[in-house]
């Protein structure tokens, strides 16, 4: 039953050689990998205005030069990541680039912050989308957390179904959102050019403003840059593209950059011309849409697609996280299970981990994840900076044709990203300090995990000189709980293996019982030696372990191996198990982990 | 570490022969077994007034004759249970009495309702006590559920420490409560006799009241009887008493009955004389205390001990539930695990189950468990009625000396209990109907469990004619994942057992890898046959199971037994396990439950 629910939710398992069919074409890739970046235009321009409004509405014209700065950064990032895509076509993005050019620890800083960042992306964007939806339907407001969790579960299931299927479903909302914003920007611009918008709404560009400072402008710039989170996703996900993967990825990246630039600058311009001031009750995009259209069907269409894309922005995390995890796991910095493809050929452990972690965050923050946004922006710009710096070193080292131009591009990207990261630390330290705690801890953990894997590998490798101890004979211990078919079955099995010695062990709770059992046994199995142990503390494991220890000690001297043969009856129905004291499970786990004995379970299947 | 926390919380394990020291003397037994009954005087009289107030304050004098009725019922119950104690000194109360005299199903009705009832006792009384405490400290009010859960955990831990220890700790609050109420009743009566209370406060007894009906009076009587819940606890817990257990239990029962009668009638009288009217904001006991003392230290002392005893009333459930569960488990109606004594000689599984279930109820009802009170009262009076009826039949059958008096006592008890139960169904059907659903389901479950145990017993019993199939030889299958020391270890073990055939099985995910491995294997272990399986769906279990099926099928024909030998390395630290794909666990569980093969785990302990 469990498996048929699984089938229904995620579909039939796919064969390994069907992997090719799970690859993305450009249209789908754009939809699924850019939802995060595109959705951030819904709040990026607002972030700029929120900083400027502290000086006054007269300062709003600064949003134009700041937006230009953001566009320059965007251009630098897109060009840099384009170079990264061609240079590292196997994917991995910032992690691989930093690791190979700057060293392992820089790679881990980039990888660790991105890993955490994707979890934040999912939590933050689903919470934001849920807020947008419940604002429209206030009666749902008290169920915010539940709705957000259901969204995460939905997106997780979609991704478990496989990359192409989730892309097919998610493509519609993403393109609808782009169309909606295009309509809004087009109509808004038309009104401006046809003179329907009065000049009085905005102060002209260049108006001197009292109280403006470079610090404030840089802060506004850093805030606006949060619209660029998500542009690295494509470089992590190259292996998901149809062949030729790098070329398709580069084209998709260019398309995304263009869309992002148009939407971002369009919204900034409209906000400026229409004199929009950010306020608590209504988002900037909503205000623009209302100014342009009034509250008609188009307005609601724009609001609806915006809410939708905020939720679906989470999906970018689902595309990038598992692939980044594979890269880290291949290098043994995180558990190996992340490298295994699930039934539908997606890296299901990564997908499930991401879903689980973001649900945890949503519940911990009770759905109010806005305070995580700066943390999340820093987590993006640190790897941006590192990967660009890595590329600089690469060009300096390799000096391919035209390396000067390439270096210039990456150097610009690195410099601006570095400044943005710095700005976050300078202007929002109270919100971003956790990075300084968690990042070192994460890297420490990565190293400990790797050290463990290497130690295990060394010990298992057959080349190592340690010779196997010869086995001269076998002692079998059979714990018995009564005179039953289950026990008979196990004793017969032990006999059939021609062990050098078979010892049945009975743990008794009182002396009377002990004597009686010994007598019965002598009649039933006269040729099998019985040892009875008295348990003062009503524990079976303790006296048994003590006995096993003694036998093992003796056996070691003679190079005998000790096997504990556990009789176990298997009930016909699974639920029957709760009706039986599963001492055998405890005994097995205890002996396997704590003692060097072999544990054999002889099942006796009940028929009713 | 885990075990040292356990030691700290519940103390060192006790030897089985230390059981005698865990028995209760009368003073302690009274404290721990009567907290439920005594605490109910805090709300019993109020329940009567709440019914009468629907007619008007003039009807309050009826509380006096109703209280007399309750006292008669109390006397009948105490005398009946006294007879039960002597007749069934091994404990078990209503369950045993009904089962032996009326038949198994009546016993199960009594046992089932009491079992559920003790869970309700714990949930209801802890919630009520928590409410009383948070009423005093309103800032804690939003943490009601958490506080209630912590109380349950505290009482559970106390009971896991053992009966005598919890009795020692709980004796103080119980006796403090009794002293507090004695002071209040004494002072209140003194004021009445010295004429400090005006006659105008209450209407004289016998005043005619319009609208009064027999139905209403019976309803008030039934409500007042809820003060008698908990009187059966002592009869369930006789085995916990010091020798001579039945005599000590009977004396304790008499003491409890006396205390209960004094406190109950005292509160009813004071409420009548002081003209107390029940209201939402303040309990009746609080109003009496205020009338007698004003809001001074004595008042707060009374309030505090009342709150405390409400919480501790839960403890009665902890004394009675595990012992009742033992009786049901011995008769195989509930899982056998309830018969096992824990480290501290208490029946820890019963204690933990009770704690867990009541926490669940508290969380489900968000701490508002008042609505469960009628359910809980019905759950007490049904077994009351059944056990008294059982005793009637016993006297009629056995006719011992003086049986007529004994029969009269039990008949009175049975009749009144029956009327009270009926009244609950007639007057509060909307709150008590779940009993009619859950009780039959519970009894059905009891029977299914018993049937299962009996079926298992039949199949295991060696006397049954089924002869064991002879074992003519052994085939050993070793799933191998690589050429490592772990595998070498397992292969050497299989060889040492002189199995008739050893087959190594390798599951490959691609053809290339498959070929390479086969070549390497042939060089490394030329004398062990290797079978490689190709897995299209990246599953190890599926192809392996298929292969095991084939081998098993062939082996059965020749009476060979199949053993799957699983190589498993055991990391040095427990947490390392999450770093390794524990396929071996899955394989073992799957093969053991689904297939009839023996599973052997050969551990290879890593040293670093």
Automatic annotation (TrEMBL), chains A, B:
Gene3D superfamilies named in the record: Amino acid/polyamine transporter I
Entry keyword Transport: no
Signal peptide range: none
Keyword Transmembrane helix: yes
Location of the protein in the cell: Membrane
InterPro entries associated with the record: AA/rel_permease1 (IPR002293), APC_K+_Transporter (IPR053153)
Keywords, in A-Z order: Membrane, Transmembrane, Transmembrane helix
GO (cellular component) term, any one: membrane
Domain of life: Bacteria
GO MF annotations in UniProt: transmembrane transporter activity
Topological type in the membrane: Multi-pass membrane protein
Residues passing through the membrane, by range: 48-81, 102-128, 140-160, 172-193, 205-231, 252-274, 300-324, 345-365, 371-395, 407-426, 432-449
Main location: membrane
PANTHER family: POTASSIUM TRANSPORTER KIMA
Protein name, as recorded: Amino acid permease
Native source species: Neobacillus piezotolerans
């Amino acid at each position: 039953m469990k498996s048929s629910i699984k089938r229904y939710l995620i579909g039939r398992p796919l064969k390994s050689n069907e992997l090719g069919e799970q690859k993305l074409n450009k249209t789908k890739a754009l939809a699924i990998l850019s939802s995060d970046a595109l959705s951030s235009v819904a709040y990026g321009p607002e972030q700029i205005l929120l900083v400027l409004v502290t000086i006054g509405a007269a300062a709003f014209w600064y949003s134009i030069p700041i937006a230009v700065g953001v566009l320059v950064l965007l251009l630098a990032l897109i060009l840099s990541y384009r170079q990264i895509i061609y240079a590292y076509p196997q994917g991995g993005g910032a992690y691989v680039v930093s690791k190979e050019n700057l060293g392992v620890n820089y790679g881990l800083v980039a990888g660790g912050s991105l890993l955490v960042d994707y979890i934040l992306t999912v939590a933050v964007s689903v919470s934001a989308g849920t807020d947008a939806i419940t604002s429209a339907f206030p009666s749902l407001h008290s169920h915010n957390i539940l709705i957000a969790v259901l969204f995460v579960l939905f997106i997780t299931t979609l991704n478990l179904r496989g990359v192409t299927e989730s892309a097919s479903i998610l493509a519609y909302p993403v393109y609808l959102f782009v169309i909606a914003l295009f309509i809004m920007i087009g109509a808004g611009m038309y009104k401006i050019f046809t003179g329907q918008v009065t000049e009085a709404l905005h102060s002209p560009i260049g108006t001197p403003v009292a109280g403006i400072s470079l610090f404030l402008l840089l802060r506004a710039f850093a805030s606006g840059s949060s619209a660029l989170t998500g542009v690295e996703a494509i470089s992590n996900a190259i292996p998901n593209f149809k062949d030729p993967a790098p070329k398709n990825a580069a084209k998709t990246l260019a398309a995304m950059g263009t869309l992002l630039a148009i939407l971002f600058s369009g919204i900034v311009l409209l906000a400026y011309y229409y004199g929009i001031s950010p306020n608590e009750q209504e988002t900037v995009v909503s205000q623009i849409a209302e100014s342009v259209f009034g509250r008609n069907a188009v307005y609601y269409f724009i609001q609806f697609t915006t809410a939708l894309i905020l939720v679906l922005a989470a999906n970018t995390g689902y595309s990038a996280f598992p692939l980044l995890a594979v890269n880290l796991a291949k290098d043994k910095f995180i558990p190996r299970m992340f490298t295994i493809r699930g039934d539908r050929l997606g890296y299901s452990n990564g997908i499930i981990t991401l879903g689980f972690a973001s649900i945890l965050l949503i519940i911990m923050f009770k759905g109010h994840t806005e305070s995580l946004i700066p943390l999340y922006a820093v987590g993006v710009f640190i790897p941006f900076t590192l990967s660009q710096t890595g590329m600089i070193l690469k060009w300096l080292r390799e000096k391919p044709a035209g390396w000067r131009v390439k270096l210039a591009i990456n150097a610009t990207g690195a410099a601006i990203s570095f400044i943005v990261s710095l700005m976050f630390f300078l202007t929002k330290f109270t919100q971003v300090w956790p990075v300084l705690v968690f990042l070192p801890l994460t890297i420490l953990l990565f190293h400990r995990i790797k050290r463990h894997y290497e130690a295990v590998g060394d010990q298992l490798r057959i080349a190592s000189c340690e010779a196997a101890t010869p086995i001269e004979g076998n002692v079998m211990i059979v714990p018995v709980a009564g005179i039953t078919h289950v026990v008979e079955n196990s004793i017969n099995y032990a006999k059939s293996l021609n062990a050098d010695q078979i010892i049945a062990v009975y743990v008794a709770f009182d002396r009377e019982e002990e004597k009686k059992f010994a007598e019965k046994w002598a009649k039933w199995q006269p040729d099998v030696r019985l040892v009875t142990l008295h348990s003062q503390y009503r524990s079976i494991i303790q006296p048994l372990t003590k006995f096993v220890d003694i036998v093992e000690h003796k056996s070691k001297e003679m190079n005998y191996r000790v096997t504990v043969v556990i009789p176990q009856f298997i009930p016909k129905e699974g639920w029957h198990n709760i009706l039986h004291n599963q001492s055998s499970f405890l005994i097995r786990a205890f002996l396997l982990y704590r003692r060097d004995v072999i544990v054999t379970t002889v099942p006796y299947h009940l028929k009713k």
